Amino acid sequence: MKHRIAAAAGVGLAPLLVVALPAAPAAAHGYINSPPSRQAMCAQGRVSDCGPIVYEPQSVEGPKGQQNCHGGLSQFAQLNDDSRPWPTTSAGNRVTVNWVLTARHATSTWEYFIGTTRIAVFNDGGARPGATVSHQVDLGGRTGRQKLLAVWNIADTPMAFYSCVDLQVGGTPPTTPPPTTTTPPTTTPPTTPPTTTTPPSSGTWVPNTAYATGAQVTHNGAAYRCVQGHTSLAGWEPDVTPALWQRI
User: Fold this and answer.
1) d(CA 155, CA 160)
2) What is the pLDDT of residue 202?
3) What angle do CA 71, 72, 78 make, to 5 degrees?
């Protein structure tokens, strides 16, 4: 190669230009799957008009230190709109929060906030987590409707991932606010979205589908049982996500 470049320079040819190609985009990352976060609600079709978050609920990444649900990303601004009819999940004073991670970044801390008050922190000290992570979060005696903000702080970058969960702590009010448009038929409970029904045992796994724990699918000629409810995404096929699917 050195001789070829020297020869080109000797005959007055244009100098060889080296073009730097942009780096490939980072892989997907993670979000709270249970209790369903706002991005999970959108991906499951339980809230309409959510924008592109329905295709990438795991991608709410922004600079550390923010106090919002959308990571400061304008394309996900719907997640930070508290006036939208976000369904709530009934909870006691301690709630188990489950993350599904599609890229296992080295982690400094996981933080949980009610309003601007940090109510829990878990320090991983730079360790790389598994494909799923669970935390027991004490809500500190709060009751009623609460918005839990969760922040996953990455150890080796200035970035974090944001996820908000709407909870109804204590009592048994409806898990979904009254509809703002049409009234659903009286024979269909308004809190049961059609996308959460368990697929038949003969069904074939497909992406962008809400699978409940215990659902059975086939993929590449093998049968699998869902071990953790989630919304499927391309790249989360049953044969590569043992944290979500068990071969049967």
Assistant:
1) 9
2) 54
3) 85
Name the one residue in this structure whose structure tokens are 């009610």. Answer: 114
Distance CA 70, CA 51 (A): 12
- The closest alpha carbon to 230, from 37, 84, 71, belongs to 37
Q: Which two tokens stand for residue 141?
A: 């005696």
CA–CA dist 239, 145 (Å, integer): 39
Q: What are phi and psi of 4, to 5 degrees?
A: -65, -40
Average pLDDT along the chain, 248 residues, taken 10 residues at a time: 41 42 50 96 95 94 96 96 96 95 91 97 95 95 97 95 96 50 48 44 78 87 83 80 82
Instruction: Please confirm whether the linkage preceding 189 is cis (ω < 30° from 0).
Output: no
The neighbouring-strand residues paired with 133 are: 99
User: Hey, how many other C-beta atoms are within 10 angstroms of the C-beta on 113?
Assistant: 17
Residues forming a β-bridge with 246: 225
Helices (H), 23-145: 38-43
Beta bridge mates, 117? 114
- CB-based contacts of 41-45 (< 8 A; 24+ apart in sequence): 41/86, 41/87, 42/78, 42/79, 43/208, 43/210, 43/231, 44/193, 44/195, 44/196, 44/210, 44/231, 45/193, 45/194, 45/195, 45/210
Residue 94 — φ and ψ, nearest 5°? Answer: -120, 130
Cα separation of 70 and 60, whole Å?
6
Closest CA to 32 of 195, 150, 155, 196: 150
The answer to whether the CB of 110 falls within 8 A of the CB of 121 is yes
